[in-house]
Specification:
The structure is a homotetramer of 225-residue chains.
Chain A lengths: L1 H21 L3 E7 L1 H4 L7 H11 L6 E7 L5 H11 L7 E5 L2 H9 L6 H17 L3 E5 L15 H18 L2 E3 L1 H12 L18 H16 L2
Parallel strand pairs in A: 1-2, 1-3, 3-4, 4-5
Helix pairs in contact in A: 3-9, 4-6, 6-7
């Protein structure tokens, strides 16, 4: 009787474990712009996220892939999502886009209107939902690291972040509020109110520290249920 | 024998006529921006096109519909084409878009990059082709009526017109080169090189004369085979 | 002896007072853009400032004049300051400019770079100092009334406000921090985070309440020594 | 009698020549943007202009100086003209500015409105006239080398060139129409309608050939009376 119980106890623990061992790892795609394109480099945030998972003994559970292209705005993601995301049958997709939608207003006159941003964002989500893909929405990080809301695009970044929070709420999707995470980090770690050099090299693209910080946030969101 | 011949003669004329009588009129949708939105007004170009067809005794052959919304750019057309165009089962669609794609660069920082303009334009065409809808591509008209290429957006309007000509050629589609038509008209009828007041009231939107001229060009294109 | 001293003490206090009574009123010029152009209207802030001074029995001490032109940026003020300001021999000048320097970046591509903003601002100040004119520097108010730093131009308005604070400090000039005053007022009085309708009609130009609030701030600054 | 006449003839030719030999060379300043900043480099247009003058035996008559700073717009020239031009007591000044006034509209939202362009241009001219400095006005060259008016900024470059032609006419000043010269050259030498690579490396800054061509135009204008 006791042996029997023992056996059952082991089985109850072991079966899920075996099941997990037999499962393929979850395929996770990071879908975004140049920050994500650089994310698969030796010091990029996707590479570092893989290292974090390995350190936690979870590297066999996840397969991380980058799908970032420099200069991409929300409708660029929309235009290439069939080929670059859906065709790869991901289990999880992080959408991390918005910096160029805001930035290109000033740098080339081809930013994205807020209402169009929302429309294309929701069009992307609709296609991911149709495939039952777990989707995590990221607010845009920074264009300039000053912490007193005096970076030129701060107003717009705050506005588009709110739009994403609303989209997440409306669609009952997981939100990773990178905008808040970055600003909180900078308030603690940028005492001289510098516009670059802490998390970014050039106000936008990430330092090694920026990549490490982002990797940590991405992994936390991935492991959150 | 003579009677027989007479009968045949009548039949040859009558059959196509009967066939035509039985057909429903061809549904023609003008798909565009504020110029097209105004086109269905009392003096708008679509209304005037209908009058031209009536004067030629062809009003029963065509049903003209407007699908214009102010401020629309190419990707706005893309986003609403299912509902506003395809759902209405048109036989012919005129695509007349591009002014805001260029203009919004300066007026709100949210114009359309040339390569994205082409991508969405071709995405629209692809969906129309799939339904075997006859599609006529229009180059953008004017932002400013000066004839010496010194209107601020002339360079871009010329560039985007070339892109549309290329799209038409690549896709073997009918082209209505409104940019050329308008500039030719203005070279003959704007001797003082005014920036508005000939075909437009405000450099973009059409005067009664502008609507009449555009109506004529649209009808010519529609009747061209 | 003691009496004599007492007499002198009274005289020292009284003479300036008498002198002031005999003096002509101080000429005060408000130098700015469309908000200031509207300021001399029936409900404008300059008109209301005059009423406030009258209510305090000080209307004979000040002559208020508007020198605002719609659409003006800092270098427009520079270009017209000889004629519109210096020629009128003011005793006090309020400089209230910056909204268009920021706004025109998005609305016409012709905003002012921050470093050029500072250069022209200081060129204006230099000429006013050379005439010993009391100069009061105003930070720009708002483009949008949302209080969570999510109005499109908030980042830039905060940046240019900092530039003006620095100019005031460097030049030892009086600062009227309208940006702070407006945001504080809105945090208390815009609970729904509306983008317009509290102090502005259209995100920029002032409601009656906005004019009254601004008038009060201007008068406080004027009476501050 | 005949000898006497001969003598006079020689004298009439020789005296001005002697006078010229004794004069200091004319100081010529090229006042502009990055193209002019690069103009003093080993292959720059100012260096090459000096070589052309030398080849014609006229190098002792002219002293060529560059006063170009990258990114400069018309009001930058205005702000630094005392120090960089007037203080150097030039005899001749070429004003060659306008590309950034147009370009920065799209690249940073801080271009120059046409009416302000004219105002600052004329303010510069006024100061040069007050010193009796010979002034030569240059129209802006190119942003893109396509010859069919389809470079994005062609409309504006044509517009600002017209403004400069008008300024020259109004002020009775010498015009060097570089815009026309460059476009004529490109029509003959850019058969493939390339956007760069003929006179420019990057649509704006000059190739060696571009510098040589510009040097020739500058020298022709300088030697024109």
């Amino acid at each position: 009787m006791r042996k029997m119980y023992r056996f059952l106890q082991i089985a109850l623990i072991a079966f899920p474990f075996l099941a997990m061992k037999q499962d393929k790892p979850l395929r996770v795609i990071f879908f975004g712009d140049s920050i994500t394109q650089a994310g698969v480099g030796p010091n990029g945030y996707i590479t570092k996220a893989g290292e974090l998972l390995k350190a936690e003994g979870k590297s066999s559970q996840f397969e991380l892939m980058g799908a970032g292209i420099g200069g991409n705005k929300v409708y660029d993601l929309y235009l290439r999502m069939e080929e670059d995301v859906l065709a790869k049958k991901p289990d999880v997709v992080f959408i991390y886009v918005g910096i160029n939608d805001v930035w290109h207003k000033a740098s080339s006159g081809t930013g994205t209107d807020p209402d169009k941003y929302v429309k294309f964002y929701e069009a992307i989500i609709k296609k991911l939902k149709a495939q039952n893909i777990r989707t995590i929405l990221c607010t845009p990080t920074v264009i300039g690291e000053k912490t007193d809301n005096s970076n030129q695009q701060d107003g717009d970044l705050n506005q588009y972040s709110k739009l994403i929070r609303d989209i997440a709420a409306r669609n009952n999707l997981q939100l990773l509020d990178l905008r808040v995470a970055f600003m909180d980090y900078l308030k603690a770690n940028n005492p001289d109110n510098k516009e670059k050099g802490v998390l970014t090299t050039d106000r936008v693209h990430l330092t090694d520290g920026g990549n490490a910080f982002l990797a940590q946030k991405m992994v936390e969101a991935l492991l959150t249920k």
